[in-house]
Amino acid sequence: MASGPDFCPKGAQIMTTVEDKTQHRSTKRVLDIFEALANASEGLTMAEICREVNAPKGSLSPILHTMADTSYVAYDDTTKRYSIGLKTYLLGKSFDRESTSINLFMAAMRDVTNACGETCQLGVLDRGRVLYIAKVDSPQPVRLTSSIGKTLPIHYTAIGKALVSEMDEEKVRAMLQEPLERPTDATVRTADEFIAQLAEVRNEGFAYDREEATEAIQCIGIGIRSHGTIQYGLSVTTPSYRLTEDKQALIKEALSRAKRHMERVLA
Amino acid sequence: MASGPDFCPKGAQIMTTVEDKTQHRSTKRVLDIFEALANASEGLTMAEICREVNAPKGSLSPILHTMADTSYVAYDDTTKRYSIGLKTYLLGKSFDRESTSINLFMAAMRDVTNACGETCQLGVLDRGRVLYIAKVDSPQPVRLTSSIGKTLPIHYTAIGKALVSEMDEEKVRAMLQEPLERPTDATVRTADEFIAQLAEVRNEGFAYDREEATEAIQCIGIGIRSHGTIQYGLSVTTPSYRLTEDKQALIKEALSRAKRHMERVLA
DNA sequence: CCGTGTTGTTCGGATATGCGAACCTCGTTC
DNA sequence: GAACGAGGTTCGCATATCCGAACAACACGG
Fold first, then answer.
1. Total-model pTM
2. How many CB pairs under 8 A join A and B?
3. Cα–Cα nearest to A75, from A97, A53, A46, A54
4. Kind and range of the H or E element at B223?
5. Could you list the protein residues whose CB lies below 7 A from any atom in strand D?
């Protein structure tokens, strides 16, 4: 195969982003629609969906119909907006019925939040970024908008650093999209700097986000191991002014305890 | 239409069931795969999925790859089984984040279960059947397998009767698949009988399943109205031996109270 | 009542997807 | 180690899907 540079498995695509390889187009569309709808709390019109998934409405029309007919998406006739449907909601339910681990994780996270009074988050690596999959809010006044289901880059999140701390350097470099996005002045500038930080994470067992994602907010993270490799990242988020020495010790202790619990569950 | 026996909109299909009309095939496949995986707690092999969705593996392969690449399904390399993935779980989460009503419904249902000590269920109409969307278990020893996400016919469920009690007779008849499935001796025999029951439901405000679905189990249901029509059905399930006169009064009171709460929420 | 901006549908040619069977790669069994 | 079965991939041809633009339906504002 690969008979020349003109080889292109999906000829018609415009190839704006390089991310698509040998994906099944229709399937990707369905999933992209789900994702777009999940991120839009008020629902989306067809035109908006077209923009999000980068497809003409003529193509999306039959897909949306099928999804609506089966209640996987809901269609509001008065507002002309599509949103996540009941069946989709139930799909998710069936997941945490089966996968008891998620429930046990949540229990461990509640313990952490109880112990240190701060928000606790759980994330995994998803295509080079941190995907947040669970959160237990601190009892303190709410701040951070809930980011469950959203992703952030690995290079300015404690969970991200924890997740990749033991991976091969090349693999990690491949995940970094240079130039590195820098939401604050404290954000790491270069891949080399980032790689250096990972050595410290390995040494200490904890990963830090020192106001690198958001001003005046810090995180402490730890990696959760399963079958030999770090699969999950657990973190505690706190405003800097509350992060005294004692508090930091408390948080680390709570995280370590949760790590032990979770790793026992993961067998 | 029906210009001849050779008319067939999707030529390649074998057309075992008559249910497909102008659905987008690929989309339906994706959704069917989701549904199959959701119903299989231990995951499915590719061959099993092929049977479930009635498609050759050559066709499903690219679809499953795409779904797995994006974490919407999980693939266990050692057991060779596919199951619902993290992203799908998060889709569901995003639903109850938006739709606050589901959470408020759950609160009302917990109140019902607290008040009468029995299992409370919530369902909607989905393509002529009752789709169970939420449940609060009674504190009593567990029995009924959880049926969230599953469907049952309308003709032997209290929720089903409540849901269709105010609909046009023809529409209701269209939902009944004759001959009527009869899981117990008490199950209604004919469409006419069923239609007659609905008049009673309208009169009394409550729908009953008197051991029509399962021996020795009864349900009392009530319809929840939104924008003028009954959109949800709420029910309490209890073993017959526990259903005394007093208990029945208690249940009806709890259901009525929940109905008021829920309808206020629905605006 | 006509522009203008929506949402959504239709249609024919271009092209990706689907089917089915043969093939591959492992384990297992005898 | 040959035969077998299960999970998965590949490939050519038949065919369903996609694109894009034009069209239809409706709402809103002047």
1. 0.82
2. 163
3. A46
4. strand B217-226
5. A 12, 25-26, 29, 55-59, 62-63; B 10-12, 24-26, 45-48, 57-58, 61, 65, 75, 80
Is B253's pLDDT higher than 80?
A: yes
Average pLDDT over residues B175-187: 93
Whether A94 has its CB under 8 Å from any CB of chain B: the answer is yes
Residue B111 pLDDT > 70, yes or no? Answer: yes
Asked whether residue B13 carries a pLDDT value surpassing 80, the answer given is: no
A76 touches chain B (CB under 8 A): no
CA distance from start to end of chain A: 43
Alpha-carbon distance A131 to A61, whole Å? Answer: 30
CA distance A111 to B114: 27
Provide CB contacts within 8 A for A54, sequence distance 6+.
Answer: A16
Residue B57 CA to residue B47 CA, distance in Å, equals 7
Contacts (Cβ under 8 Å, ≥6 apart) of A106 = A134, A136
Place of tokens 């639903």: B95
The token pair that represents A242 in the structure block: 């509350």
B36 contact A CB<8A: no
